[in-house]
Specification:
InterPro entries: AB_hydrolase_fold, Lipase_secreted. Pfam families: LIP (PF03583). This is Lipase family protein. The protein is of the alpha/beta class. It has three domains: 57 residues; 253 residues, 3-Layer(aba) Sandwich (Rossmann fold), CATH 3.40.50.1820; 90 residues. It has 13 helices and nine strands. It has a nine-stranded mixed sheet with strand order 1-2-3-5-4-6-7-8-9, with helices on both faces. β1 and β2 form a beta hairpin. The radius of gyration is 26 Å and the shape is globular. The termini are far apart.
């Protein structure tokens, strides 16, 4: 009898405990839910402010890119004009900049871009600058990433890089954003623009940029940062290039154009490249007539007025009729194109910094074997190369697929 009463009391006690505990768990769940909602609310609010800022900045965008009369009067890397951006990444501030640089002949030219830096105190000596080289977006001024509604969209890995404390300097390259000679796949001009974007960042007190530099680029940007690394000791000796990372770099232009001269990619890239080279290397006989068929010449102005990402379908529609009859010869086998492509291919000289090379095994534009040959060449120069071949990564996705390897490589080298 006593045992039954004891059991009933124990059961009642357990039920009582259960009843008491439920409100605690309920309150905890409500607290967690409220906290999550608050975080979501902050994220949504920050995103909304950034979008509103991006939209507001479009109103007077064209005026920023008009060069003043003294635009060319100053040293490479000095700022022509700058403006703080309203739509900025979380926990960061940013500027749009117009700055001076030089072309392959040493002539003063102007480039544009953006500088992004984390909020909060910088380390002693300032922040390491991550100089970013973007993949092909086109060659028209309107194709410049800094003119886009979201000017940060193509900085691949931006959030991770800001969280590491880098100031990011992202050039548009010469001839995009603002007036200047067409520099598409012109290695020296692209490399100079990358290095002078770092110098421009140093001109902005709020960017807290040091002379330590890490270079990171994808595709066309891979070629640009590789040339920046090669040229830095002579062109910008005050900068210390401490690491170079590239994803599917347009390193070997001879192979790139020869492999694709008879397909849709070759027509698109070739339309950009041959137009640029015919302007920059006119004194060396690089005429459009010497490499393109009459039908290809006819579509060139229209192709070069369009941006790659925004107008891909239109570009392919225009290009398709001349696929297979675009060039009069393989440009890698006829002069002056053979020499020009070789001169603008990376790997001409060694540089004193470790190199990370990421390549997607599903890339059909920059083919894996071409990148493997480039890696072997760089190692033959004595460069410390860390090569990553990533399964299922395409040309479009390789920079994102490579981010874990990039972060680990930066850690390994104390960057």
């Amino acid at each position: 009898m006593r045992s039954k009463r004891t059991a009933r009391k124990r059961l009642a006690s357990e039920e009582s405990e259960t009843v008491v505990r439920r409100p605690r768990n309920h309150r905890l769940a409500l607290g967690v839910a409220a906290g999550l909602l608050a975080v979501v609310g902050v994220v949504v609010a920050v995103a909304a402010l950034r979008i509103a800022g991006d939209i507001a900045e479009q109103n007077d965008l064209a005026a920023f890119y008009q060069q003043p009369a003294d635009a060319l009067d100053g040293d490479p890397g000095t700022i022509v004009r700058s403006e703080a951006l309203l739509g900025v990444p979380f926990d960061a501030r940013a500027w749009r900049v117009m700055y001076r640089t030089t072309d392959l002949n040493g002539q003063s030219v102007v480039a544009t871009g953006i500088i992004v830096t984390p909020l909060g105190p910088a380390p002693a000596g300032g922040r390491t600058v991550l100089a970013w080289g973007h993949p092909t977006t086109g060659t028209a001024p309107e194709c410049a990433p800094s003119r886009a509604l979201d000017p940060y969209e193509l900085i691949e890995g931006m959030r991770l890089l800001l969280d590491r404390g880098y100031t990011i300097a992202a050039t548009d390259y010469v001839g995009m954003g603002t007036a200047g000679p067409d520099s598409y796949l012109v290695g020296a001009t692209g490399g100079n623009a990358v290095l002078d974007a770092v110098r421009a960042a140093q001109q902005l007190p709020g960017a807290e940029a040091s002379d330590r530099v890490v270079l990171w680029g994808h595709s066309q940007g891979g070629q640009a940062v590789l040339f920046a690394a090669q040229r830095a000791p002579q062109y910008a000796p005050e900068l210390s290039v401490e690491g170079v990372a590239v994803a599917a770099p347009a390193a070997d232009l001879t192979t790139l154009l020869s492999d694709h001269i008879d397909d849709i990619s070759g027509v698109t890239i070739g339309s950009y490249a041959f137009a640029a080279y015919s302007e920059v290397y006119a004194d060396r006989g690089a005429t459009i007539e010497s490499i393109l068929t009459p039908d290809a010449q006819q579509i060139l102005p229209e192709m070069n007025a369009l941006c790659l990402l925004a107008d891909m379908d239109t570009l392919h529609h225009i290009a398709q009729p001349v696929v297979g009859r675009f060039a009069t010869a393989d440009p890698g086998t006829v002069q002056p194109w053979k020499d020009l492509l070789a001169e603008n291919s990376a790997g001409g000289t060694a540089f004193d910094a470790p190199l990370l090379v990421a390549q997607g095994l599903s890339d059909t534009l920059v083919i894996p074997s071409a990148t493997a040959e480039f890696v072997a060449h760089e190692r033959s120069l004595g460069i410390d190369v860390d090569s990553h071949q990533i399964r299922d990564a395409t040309h479009a996705t390789i920079a994102y697929f490579a981010l874990p390897a990039l972060m680990g490589w930066l850690d390994d080298h104390g960057l």
